[in-house]
Amino acid sequence: MPLDLARQLREGTRKAHTMAENTGFVSCFLKGVVDKTSYRLLIADLYFVYSAMEEEIRRLSDLGNTIISSIDFPELSRTKALEQDLIFFFGSQWSEVVKPTISAQEYVERIHYLAKESPELLIGHHYTRYIGDLSGGQILKTIAKKALNLSENGGLSFYNFDLINDEKEFKQQYSQTLNSLKIDQPMVESIVEEANNAFKYNMNIFQELEGNLIAAIGKVVFRLLTNRKRPGSTEDKT
Fold this sequence. Notes:
With 238 residues, this protein is mainly alpha-helical. It has one domain (5-218): Heme Oxygenase, Chain A (Up-down Bundle). The chain is 71% helix and 0% strand. It contains 11 helices and no strands. It has helices at residues 5-12, 14-21, 24-30, 36-62, 66-70, 79-90, 94-97, 102-117, 122-147, 167-179, 185-226. Helix 4 (36-62) packs antiparallel against helix 6 and helix 4 (36-62) runs antiparallel to helix 11. The longest helix is centred in the last third of the chain and has 42 residues, at 185-226. The N and C termini lie far apart (66 Å).
């Protein structure tokens, strides 16, 4: 009897998904409050997370892990796209100045640990990140483009899945792949649990970035307050 891993992942992570969307950073993002410094740090963190995940998935596929090789979709690869965005935001020497935040480094370490100790659990992270970005990517792209005044060709490569022509069709294929994996119910439950852990690691990144966003908002408020017309000033009130 099919275990329907795709459905169990979707239903088993619903609460974590809602919690992630309700973090201060994501809530502000969805409302169009996006600070360039915080955003480019997010792109940097995602680069380290995705490069670790893709490195391990390719390595395990080359070693003959048939379960992991089943989800090794080249259409989903994000590392090169993130490198383009890092060049846009930090310049051609980005690798010399960009470092992961503490939360991102912990996430990367978790990915490498699972790849060695229990590779199948990487499916939980793969599902959480890639399908999440594919599903909500265009919405976030539109918000970031407007909020940061970006052009179509600058700083938005992460959201472009150029090798996927039909998002709905691809997600159906992805679900079918998950449901065809030769795993038992205890492993399914472990994968769902790890997917919830993936949300926690992502929320930790968001919460660490909130400090930068709050500071940026504070500066804007301070400028608004101090820019009011003072006695003897010719400045207009804001």
